[in-house]
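Handout, page 2. Input:
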Amino acid sequence: MPGGPPVPVSHARRAWLYVLGGLIALFLVLPVLVVIPMSFSDTVYLEFPPRQWSLRNYRAFFGSVEWRDATWVSVRAALVTTVAATVLGTAAAYGLAVTRWRWSRAAQVLLLAPQMVPAILVAIGLFYLYAKLELVNTLLGLVLAHTLLALPFVVVTVTAGLASFDMTQEMVARSLGASRLRAVLTVTLPQIRHSLVSAALFAFITSLDEVVVALFISGGENATLTRRMFSALRDQIDPTIAAISTLLIVISVGLLAAAQLLGRARPAGRSG
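Output:
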């Protein structure tokens, strides 16, 4: 009725929405899930469904020096990227939240630009810049590039946490004699710690899974795991790829689940 109270819609009447949502989720997830049983195949090629189950692909991965070195490069780059992107992104989000600078909106768009520009364009630009700075195939160059790509995720996540934080608490701390830095470190950041943890997890996953930029700027002893996976698929169908993909899926899903659990674990009435 026009002007009347809203009529509640039962779950039965919304059943088609649940079915449609389930089909869309299945369409998105199914290609990823197919890789998991393929990783346990006993054949020397990718096979689905496997006729015989085996851990040979996992033994090949953990027993290969090349794969272990590439994994170590990716883990080191991801850890340093996580620290750098979280610190820089948090500082940028805090600055945008408290400033009344007329160009703050433009600065926010600039910080999010690496996620709006196609990755191939970012990779080509970084390659030409790194060639002049001699940063191609170096761990430092890889960390800088991954930090650039992870920064938007940190800025968005921390900005969301700061939006639900009452800034008057920080003002009270400063009015009682705390410096601005101390007020931020002891009042603001502890109350948005769940957003900080989520932002750090997003930064880690972004660096660990990144492949397009790594194809252009990493190589040799500093080749990442994803780059070596791409090379293995280009030169031959190596079934070890399925085992590595499964491990990356487990790590990514585990970290995202941890981020969701941390978000739900926030006490009622607390910010961050």
